[in-house]
Specification:
By secondary structure, the chain is an alpha+beta fold. It contains 15 helices and nine strands.
């Protein structure tokens, strides 16, 4: 007999492993005949006084009750698994849409409000309502669920990176809206026949953004992920001087740390961005005039209210213009699109304000052709 399997002992006992379990009282004793006999004589004297038929009935009834209890426990655990899975799914949706943690309680309330109408023709409507009520979506629960999923995602990422034979990091240093320098570290690596490219770290550069600072931050990020530098075969940067400097640039310093030759790549997306930003100088006049008109309307509160009111009167699909930010220059495509879509309304607004004569280009065919060309192809350049 295998130890992991249960075995009946005269119908009253179940042997499981090294223990004997009494089906009458669920007590456990060492699986020896003397121990079983002592337990039986001490706790169940009445059993020996009954007839053999009554003994069989008691045993069958006790086993049935025990199985029913086990089934109830399994059902309860299974129910909790379903509600926990739903809780994790809701927390994942809240995190992906950057919603606050207490939105989980709102979701639960919304589900309960919709359920009576949505499942009115279902026979198990009450069961559905009770199941929704059991889904844990409190603020702390949602927070814990999100943290656990983030931890699991990080663990899976670390496992994939450490099992990859070759790794190619990509480094990008930029400034966020708080004027703080941030270093984004991405990595491209192979898992079987699939290539993955994921963000592995975002670190802050507290002082300067020299090549030595970037190299130190990059080295710390790779060490935190337990990445073996021997597996690095290439590195991609944005081509800035602090990245590609001959002596103190990041790549030169990083090669010293890696101690083997690696490929140096200039990010093609960044090259395209530079081309769209500085290469198309013939479009600068168009962008400058569009920016000037948009700022005239949007930067002054009175003009903005008048323009918004005009757009509302003509039933425009937009309720205002977008301002162009030279720092976030990739927004120029969206600004041009909104400007072209509202061109007639902008002309009408400037005419009402007696300022149309200041912008004669708005009726010049050649300028309008360049504007439409920019509007059509700017998203492609970006």
């Amino acid at each position: 007999m295998r130890r992991s399997r249960a075995q009946s002992v005269k119908g009253v006992w179940k042997r499981k492993g090294d223990k004997a379990v009494c089906v009458l009282c669920s007590g456990t004793v060492v699986c020896r005949a003397s121990s079983i006999k002592l337990h039986f004589e001490t706790n169940h004297k009445f059993f020996g006084e009954k007839s053999e038929l009554k003994q069989k009935e008691l045993i069958v009834s006790a086993i049935k009750d025990r199985n029913k209890q086990s089934a109830s426990i399994i059902k309860y655990v299974s129910k909790n698994c379903h509600t926990s899975a739903a809780s994790y799914s809701a927390a994942n949706a809240i995190a992906r849409h950057c919603k606050p943690f207490h939105e989980g309680e709102f979701l639960n309330e919304a589900w309960l409000a919709c359920t009576p109408s949505l499942f009115d023709d279902f026979d198990n409507k009450d069961k559905i309502i009770h199941r929704i009520k059991d889904v844990p979506l409190s603020r702390n629960t949602v927070k814990d669920r999100i943290l656990k999923q983030a931890e699991n995602g990080t663990d899976e990422q670390n496992k994939d990176i450490n099992s990859a034979p070759f790794i190619s990091p990509c480094i990008d240093e930029s400034i966020d809206i708080t004027k703080s320098a941030r270093l984004a570290v991405s990595a491209r690596y192979c898992i079987g026949n699939f290539i993955k490219e994921e963000l592995i770290a975002i670190t802050s550069l507290l002082a300067t953004t020299k090549g030595t600072d970037i190299c130190t931050a990059e080295r710390d990020s790779l060490a935190e992920k337990d990445i073996d530098l021997k597996n690095i075969v290439s590195v991609t940067t944005d081509g800035a001087p602090n990245m590609v400097g001959k002596k103190k640039g990041f790549i030169s310093l990083f090669k010293t740390d890696v101690r083997h030759s690696i490929l140096e790549c200039h990010c093609i997306i960044h090259q395209q961005a530079l081309c769209a930003k500085s290469g198309l100088t013939s479009l600068d006049n168009v962008i400058m005039l569009v920016t000037k008109i948009v700022n005239l309307i949007s930067s002054q509160a009175l003009n903005k209210r008048k323009c918004d009111s005009l757009l509302d009167e003509v039933n425009s699909v937009y309720n205002g213009l977008l301002m162009y930010n030279n720092v976030c220059w990739l927004s120029r495509g969206n600004v041009l699109q909104r400007f072209v879509d509202c061109l007639e309304e902008i002309r009408l607004f400037l005419q009402n304000e007696n300022k149309i004569e200041q912008y004669p280009q708005l009726i010049v065919i050649m300028w309008l052709l360049i504007l439409m060309f920019s509007y059509r192809h700017m998203p492609t350049f970006q």
